């Protein structure tokens, strides 16, 4: 075994997260599959007593995940809290449940941790902070085998990817330009050519025909969460309704401009979350396109909530965690979007 020092990067708000448990408007224990790591599976197989029997009956050992009862984890109690936590303690929760909404990306001798937008409380923390995004770093010491230590070395090209990302953050926060122009400049920094996404950043991007085309792409995604298709259909119906007038579009855009940090935060979150992965696939342009796609899509979904009478901040937060559960936690959907954006 060898000691290895790993640099850990994290956003300025990361350590401020605290789960609100049963008060959360959307429990993370319902609506999707919860995978179980091998260590936890072994613990659950051996758990004793009446709760141990109940625990095993709630686990699909063949597929390493919890079973679902009416879309909910069977170990969720009446107050919306986890019975594994109640009976066995946090240490015996599976890795997914113990760490969510925290997430880590491994880049050799650099780890980047973040919060997932799919958690309503994390979404509020990420999106409603008016301060510019900033990255903090620390060092964590691990005891690794020789093989693990070799894998924890510097990843070739990582320094360059981080440098490019820092330049993109500079462009994102360049207040000489309105946000749509900043995003266009970021798109063109790689190809120098028009991409069809630029149409989504135009002043007429909120008219009914444009909105219908924009959200139609989402119907092709594999449903992940209960209620996603109903949410999407409702959004389309609202955007096609008579309330979506040019005057409403203008009012919404003025509100977005006045509180542009909201959608800047969306861009910053996805830029941090995705871009460093280009060190492995070399697709920097694709990472920026995906970020812009998410910003534009969330602006459309938020506009629909806003037309229903929701304040802009709440419209964005609600749209973001629902959308993130559908997109960020399903590789098939991310890959499908990446293919669409290459066209």
From TrEMBL:
Protein's UniProt keywords contain Metal-binding: no
GO molecular function terms attached to this record: methyltransferase activity
Signal sequence annotation: none
Keywords carried by this UniProt record: Cell projection, Cilium, Flagellum, Membrane, Methyltransferase, Transferase, Transmembrane, Transmembrane helix
UniProt EC number: 2.1.1.-
Spans traversing the lipid bilayer: 261-280, 292-308
Keyword set includes Transferase: yes
GO biological process: methylation
NCBIfam families named among the record's database cross-references: Lys_methyl_FliB
Protein name per Swiss-Prot or TrEMBL: Flagellin lysine-N-methylase
Organism encoding this protein: Candidatus Scybalocola faecigallinarum
Taxonomic lineage of the native organism: Bacteria, Bacillati, Bacillota, Clostridia, Lachnospirales
Gene from which the chain derives: fliB
């Amino acid at each position: 075994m060898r000691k290895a020092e790993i640099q850990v990067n994290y956003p300025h708000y990361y350590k401020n997260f605290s789960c609100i448990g049963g008060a959360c408007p959307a429990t993370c224990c319902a609506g999707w599959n919860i995978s179980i790591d091998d260590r936890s599976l072994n613990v659950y197989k051996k758990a004793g007593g009446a709760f141990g029997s109940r625990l095993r009956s709630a686990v699909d050992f063949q597929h390493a995940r919890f079973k679902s009862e009416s879309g909910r984890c069977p170990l969720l109690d009446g107050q919306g809290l986890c019975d594994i936590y109640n009976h066995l303690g946090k240490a015996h929760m599976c890795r997914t449940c113990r760490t969510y909404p925290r997430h880590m990306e491994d880049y050799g001798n650099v780890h980047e941790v973040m919060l997932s937008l799919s958690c309503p409380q994390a979404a509020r923390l990420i999106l409603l902070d008016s301060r510019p995004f900033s990255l903090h770093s620390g060092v964590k010491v691990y005891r690794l085998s020789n093989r693990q230590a070799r894998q924890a070395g510097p990843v070739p090209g990582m320094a360059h990817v981080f440098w490019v990302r820092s330049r993109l953050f500079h462009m994102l926060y360049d207040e000489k330009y309105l946000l749509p122009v900043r995003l266009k400049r970021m798109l063109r920094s790689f190809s120098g050519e028009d991409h069809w996404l630029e149409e989504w950043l135009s002043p007429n991007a909120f008219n009914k025909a444009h909105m219908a085309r924009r959200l139609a792409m989402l119907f092709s995604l594999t449903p992940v969460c209960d209620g996603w298709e109903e949410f999407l259909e409702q959004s389309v119906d609202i955007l096609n309704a008579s309330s979506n007038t040019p005057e409403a579009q203008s009012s919404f855009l003025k509100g977005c401009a006045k509180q542009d940090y909201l959608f800047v935060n969306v861009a910053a979150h996805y830029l941090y979350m995705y871009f460093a992965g280009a060190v492995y696939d070399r697709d920097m342009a694709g990472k920026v396109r995906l970020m812009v796609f998410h910003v534009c899509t969330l602006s459309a979904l938020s506009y629909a909530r806003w037309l229903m009478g929701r304040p802009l901040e709440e419209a964005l937060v609600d749209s973001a965690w629902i959308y993130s559960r559908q997109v960020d936690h399903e590789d098939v959907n991310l890959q499908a979007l990446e293919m669409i954006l290459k066209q």
